[in-house]
From TrEMBL:
Pfam families: Phage_int_SAM_1 (PF02899), Phage_integrase (PF00589)
Name listed for the protein in its UniProt record: Tyrosine recombinase XerC
Compartment list: Cytoplasm
Source organism per UniProt: Candidatus Kutchimonas denitrificans
GO cellular component, one term: cytoplasm
């Protein structure tokens, strides 16, 4: 693939998304990138110079071409998964308006339950960030806010100071498809934010001004990147001695799971997560069978 083609199809940004937001391994990222490269080759043969204008019909033709060449079902399943991830990424980044892969047929597979941290592990992680240096104050604020609100990593790095309502403890989040939502956060996250804003952020920005208005700043005074935020989570989890494979999305999963286990209404959790379909939120109820049992016993008239 030429550099020009990579730019037109945004492949480097897609790989960053897979590694630093989805938290996929290098092996899986490479496999997905290869699958998307095969898709791009097909699209170019069909006259497309970019993902703009690609529809469901073209994606179905791509899948048909895979079947005609005798690809194994498992290989086709992975390629369909890569295609869905790719177009989901393009839509979330505002590169395309709609996702043509939403109705792309593929073999049914059982959805894996997301990994979560226990409340004790969350407490251990957050309490491990002790210190008053700018980077520690920044990192604690990031982790506290991610767990307090369930924001995606792409949403976190896109936050601006003006998105915060510190008096009401609310944050305006711009999610997938540029949809906005308002999410509350608690007093602990507020304290971490105030410490970061007053004591750490001015030091990180300095007199460079590159991060003006952006909430989270790198050590070089620039807006924090997706990769930078991912590395902060990885490094802090490792320092806290947590043995699980934790990504930024793990904090989002933990946020939703702990709310539901605590008795929160699923529709409210759906709103805070920014899920368009409540079925996406319902997966978190399967993480704890005790939650379902409790709901049944409390609300069913013949329980």
């Amino acid at each position: 693939m030429t550099e020009e083609t990579a730019q037109r199809f945004h492949t480097e940004r897609f790989e960053d998304y897979l590694r630093f937001e989805r938290g996929l391994t290098a092996t899986t990222t490479s496999a997905y990138a290869a699958d998307v490269l095969e898709l791009i080759s097909f699209l170019e043969s069909e006259g497309f110079a970019s993902p703009h204008g690609v529809g469901l019909a073209q994606l179905r033709e791509f899948v048909y071409s895979l079947r005609e060449t005798g690809r194994a079902a498992s290989s086709i399943r992975r390629k369909i998964s890569a295609v869905r991830s790719y177009f989901g990424f393009l839509q979330a980044e505002g590169i395309i308006d709609g996702d043509p892969s939403e109705l792309l047929e593929g073999p049914k597979a059982r959805r894996a339950l997301p990994a979560v941290l226990s409340e004790a592990e969350i407490e251990s992680l957050l309490e491990s960030l002790q210190g008053s240096d700018p980077l520690t104050l920044r990192d604690r604020s990031i982790l506290e806010l991610m767990y307090a609100t369930g924001v995606r990593i792409s949403e976190l790095i896109g936050l601006r100071i003006r998105d915060l309502d510190l008096d009401e403890r609310l944050v305006r989040v711009v999610g997938k498809g540029s949809k906005e939502r308002i999410v509350p956060f608690g007093s602990v996250a507020l304290d971490a934010l105030l410490a970061y804003l007053s004591e750490a952020r001015p030091v990180l920005v300095g007199d460079r001004g590159e991060g003006a208005g952006t909430l989270y700043i790198s050590r070089r005074g620039r807006p924090l990147s997706r990769k930078g935020a991912w590395e902060i989570v990885r490094r802090r989890v490792q320092a806290a001695g947590i043995g699980k494979d934790v990504t930024p999305h793990t904090l989002r999963h933990s946020f939703a799971t702990h709310l539901l286990q605590g008795g929160a209404d699923i529709a409210a959790v759906q709103e805070m997560l920014g899920h368009a379909d409540i079925a996406t939120t319902q997966i978190y109820t399967h993480l704890d069978r005790g939650y379902l049992t409790d709901v049944h016993r409390r609300y069913h008239p013949r329980a």
